[in-house]
Write a structure and sequence with these properties.
The complex is a heterodimer of chains A (400) and B (391). By secondary structure, chain A is of the alpha+beta class. Chain A is 44% helix and 14% strand. In chain A, the strands form two sheets. Chain A has a four-stranded mixed sheet with strand order 1-4-5-8. Chain A has a four-stranded antiparallel sheet with strand order 2-3-7-6, with no helix packed on it. In chain A, strand 2 and strand 3 form a beta hairpin. Chain A starts with 6 loop residues before the first helix and ends in a 6-residue tail after the last helix. The longest helix of chain B is centred in the middle third of the chain and has 36 residues. The relative contact order of chain B is 0.11. The chains are: A alpha+beta (400), B alpha+beta (391). Bound molecules: flavin-adenine dinucleotide (2 copies). One flavin-adenine dinucleotide binds next to strand 1 and helix 12 of chain A. One flavin-adenine dinucleotide binds next to helix 8 and helix 9 of chain B.
Chain lengths: 400, 391
């Protein structure tokens, strides 16, 4: 066991921090506040190019696709520092890891360098009105027709669909096969005829959540597919193997820097706030009951960090997850929710003030978290489903 | 950064598990609860021959010279097997000699510990059990070339079995420079000591010690007179991290017993393991023990790395206390009525884990130290950063 980063990795972290200090200008921050962290405005896109030129995106990817064939831990460090500044540099949702693992040579060439340059991004088309946690129940159909597939169906909560260049779509290709064995994945340009995107507004829409809010998205979408014709080359991996191709990407999505920060950023924020701020002479940092809760939160935050490091250690040593990713996806989101609620009881009436309100603390981020944090226990594998996986994969218990 | 145990570490851990699986059945812990001596001499000697007691002692004094993480991994396995031996107290006291003892003290003590010829323990707590310098009231007075001790020491592990006890006594009132504490080595057979055995939840060996004009040579003082609080504190932190290892070992075994039980016990026409509420309870047990284990490993690793470690130790103990207690309680829940029966073994783990959570610092004490240190840290704090502990 080794609980420190190497000196080179610490130096990389400092280098990234310096880049952020120099390049994430107030204008960029204003743009991010406007677009939300996932979407890139023109100024952020310019900066993203510079980040890519430094070789900081897709560090662990092979060189022939624009990566550095470097360490997954290095990549984590870069992702964490940017995520702390409100900038997502991870890649493109579940897309990139799955393309790396299952894509054809042409697909790797087509997508990976473009992802690195920030020119290609994916919306995730998994969830449907009748298939959420129980994703394998999805009904969106893709029918082979000569050299093409014809797609019909509806996807829900396709968050990036209104600005992504592509959708990473899970669809049913064999309705007669057992549920998990009739699913395929497609990489489809969003401007393909027959795709319609309709907004779904979230409870964060008004007022807009400040940067750094856990699930501060004001908008997601529903996406409709009506006789959408795509070339067969859009298929990722083999036909009917999509469940397994998708699972690879999802596992990697459940762990890592942005997931970690979603769960713990509040721990650091509240401790730093309490350290430096009094309310008219009322110093929360001196209240023994609050100190006990602060320490409790902090310790749980450390567990989130260590579980993230465990997952990174497994990835870096080419190990396989049995249940560890799922365990982390139970503990960390629930921790984030507990923290959010504890902070509410620390701040009292100030804790309910939203962005823009008179006397809102830190732009109301703590109040906005109360509208978003619980969502982290649902997305990308709900905590109930994750517990099922821990019990079944980790502990050998039967399906219910 | 690789938080997974390395291959060599796993080899040591697995070998320890194999040995204990074969040589330390639960019946041994049960038998030792009734035993006057309180530990298995035979098991102790076997462990000695495997080199366990010296594994993290310096090679120059007959030890294996491996990082304290190795000792932690072995104690984790001893916890798993609830091995009835005075290993933890011996290791804690011996490491205090390693870290702060004189060369002479090391020469006379450590090779014997490594061989298994010397059982040790430590004594800091008193009637006021808080682990802080101002709760230490037992007096030591220098008289010529002796230290004369008067007072009470409480909750001392394995006192009857031990030959030496590393003890914190008050030799001066606290000042800005010093807490006034002296750490010293006291033979347990010294004239003037009266021992009262305590009856604990774990039914292991703890005692209350009365010291009346107990005289030890000044050469038994570890470090300088009245300058011993940092060494005491280091001993407590080391002992705490090692105790966490023991607790997580026992708690994981306890959880595994519940998981096995749930797979075999049928109710409502299927195994208990087929009910989601039982599955989720089991998942939570494993997630909790995993978390405690990661914190504990980090604390053990930091003890060796020359980095601040006290906050990590407190993090580990506070979390381990709460989560491992919850784990063994859930295990009782899953076992239904049978877990309450003397004849069934589960309570051997339940009672130990529960008792151990109350030793070497409660969750409240440890969280208070985390909060104190965190809030005193200059500048912005960030998870994973090195934080200096505030006493
Ligand atoms: C803001 C936001 C962004 C999103 N972005 C995307 C995206 O970009 N792409 C995408 O594809 N999806 C996205 N999602 C969808 C998200 O992944 C789903 O919400 C999630 O999978 C849960 O599905 P559901 O909402 O239909 O809830 P349901 O599946 O109906 O679940 C409801 C509740 O039932 C519980 N439950 C379900 N099954 C079980 C069981 N077997 N045992 C016990 N409890 C169970 C769940 O844990 C949950 O608590 C997003 C959602 C939101 C809110
Ligand atoms: C001290 C003591 C005194 C007692 N006195 C009496 C007495 O006088 N007379 C008498 O008849 N009995 C008595 N009992 C028995 C007591 O009522 C049983 O222990 C109790 O009914 C549970 O049964 P069990 O121990 O077989 O556990 P089990 O039924 O095996 O249950 C084990 C665990 O599985 C859980 N479980 C079971 N089914 C499900 C499910 N469908 N979904 C989720 N979880 C489930 C239970 O909640 C429990 O946590 C006594 C028990 C004790 C310990």
């Amino acid at each position: 066991m080794e609980f420190a980063f190497t000196p080179e990795q610490e130096a990389l972290r400092v280098e990234v921090q310096q880049f952020i200090a120099e390049n994430v200008t107030p204008e960029i921050v204003a743009e991010l506040e406007d677009t939300g962290i996932r979407r890139r405005g023109p100024k952020t896109r310019e900066m993203y190019k510079e980040i890519a030129e430094r070789g900081w995106i897709g560090i662990s990817w092979p060189k022939e696709y624009g990566g550095q064939a470097g360490s997954r831990i290095d990549q984590y460090i870069v992702e964490e520092e940017f995520a702390r500044a409100g900038i997502t540099v991870g890649g493109a949702g579940s897309g990139a890891p799955a393309i790396l693992a299952a894509g054809t040579e042409e697909q790797k060439q087509e997508f990976l360098p473009g992802i690195i340059r920030g020119e290609i991004s994916f919306a995730l088309g998994f969830t449907e009105p009748q298939a959420g946690a129980d994703l394998a129940g999805l009904q969106c159909r893709a029918v082979r027709d000569g050299d093409e597939y014809v797609i019909n169906g509806q996807k829900m909560y396709t968050t990036a669909a209104h600005y992504a260049t592509h959708i990473y779509l899970m669809a049913r290709t064999d309705p007669d096969a057992p549920r998990h064995r009739g699913i395929s994945i497609f990489l489809i340009p969003m401007d393909t005829p027959g795709i319609t995107v309709r907004p779904l507004w979230t409870i964060q829409n008004d007022p807009p959540a400040p940067l750094g809010t856990t699930y501060g998205d004001n908008r997601t979408n529903e996406t409709f597919f009506e006789n959408v014709r795509v070339p067969a080359s859009c298929l990722l991996g083999e036909e009917n193997q999509g469940w397994y191709v998708g699972a690879m990407g999802l596992n990697l999505d459940r762990v890592g820097a942005s997931r970690y920060l979603i769960s713990i950023q509040r721990d650091e924020d509240i401790v730093n706030w309490v350290k430096d701020n009094d309310i008219e002479g009322y110093a929360m940092r001196e209240d023994p009951a609050l100190r006990d809760r602060l320490a409790d939160m902090w310790i749980e935050g450390q567990v989130c960090r260590l579980m993230t490091m465990r997952s990174m250690s497994i990835v870096e040593t080419d190990g396989n997850f049995t249940y560890e990713g799922s365990a982390e996806k139970v503990f960390a989101p629930e921790h984030g929710v507990r923290t959010t609620e504890t902070i509410a009881q620390m701040l009292g009436p100030y804790g309910q003030l939203l962005n823009g309100s008179e006397d809102a603390i830190e732009s109301g981020v703590f109040a906005h978290n109360l509208m978003g944090a619980f969502q982290s226990g649902i997305n990308h594998g709900s905590v109930q489903v994750m517990r099922d996986q821990v019990a079944r994969r980790g502990l050998g218990m039967p399906r219910v | 950064m690789n938080v997974l145990p390395a291959e060599e570490e796993l080899m040591v851990k697995n070998a320890a598990r194999e040995f204990l699986d074969a040589e330390c059945p639960p019946g041994l812990a049960r038998a030792m609860e009734q035993d006057e001596r309180g530990y298995s001499v035979e098991l102790w000697e076997q462990m000695a021959s495997l080199g366990w007691f010296g594994i993290s002692l310096p090679e120059a004094y007959g030890g294996g010279g491996l990082p304290v993480t190795y000792l932690g991994l072995i104690l984790e396995e001893c916890g798993r097997a609830i091995a009835p031996v005075p290993f933890h107290s011996t290791a804690t006291a011996a490491l205090a000699v390693v870290n702060n003892g004189s060369d002479e003290q090391k020469q006379t003590i450590l090779p014997r510990v490594a061989r298994g010829d010397l059982i040790m323990t430590w004594a800091v707590q008193e009637q006021d059990p808080r682990l802080r310098a101002d709760a230490v009231q037992c007096r030591g007075e220098v008289d010529g070339d002796s230290l004369v001790i008067n007072g009470i020491k409480h909750f001392v592990d394995n006192f009857s079995a031990a030959e030496l006890v590393v003890m914190a006594v008050r030799t001066a009132e606290p000042t800005d420079e010093s807490a006034g504490i002296t750490l010293c080595i006291v033979p347990t057979n010294s004239a003037g000591i009266t021992e009262t055995r305590l009856t604990t939840l774990a039914k292991d060996s703890q005692s209350k010690i009365a010291l009346e004009n107990v005289r030890i040579p000044l050469s038994n003082v570890i470090g300088e007179i009245s300058q011993g609080w940092p060494a005491t504190s280091e001993m407590l932190d080391t002992g705490t991290a090692l105790l966490c290892a023991q607790i997580i070992g026992a708690a994981r075994k306890d959880a595994e017993m519940a998981i096995e039980y749930a797979k075999n016990r049928v109710a409502f026409g299927r195994p208990l393991a087929g009910f989601q509420s039982i599955q989720h309870l089991c998942a939570d047990m494993i997630v909790a023990v995993d978390g405690a284990q990661l914190l504990t490993y980090e604390a053990l690793w930091k003890l060796d790395a020359g980095l601040p470690y006290s906050v990590e130790v407190s993090q580990a103990k506070a979390f381990t206390n709460d989560k491992c207690q919850a784990t063994v309680r859930s295990s009782q829940q899953i076992h239904g009525g049978i877990g309450f029966m003397m004849e069934f073994d589960l309570h051997l783990w339940y009672r130990r884990v529960t008792a151990w959570t109350m030793r070497l610092g409660t969750s409240f004490e440890h969280r208070a130290r985390v909060a104190r240190s965190l809030l005193a840290q200059p500048g912005r704090v960030r998870l994973g950063m090195n934080i200096e502990a505030v006493a």
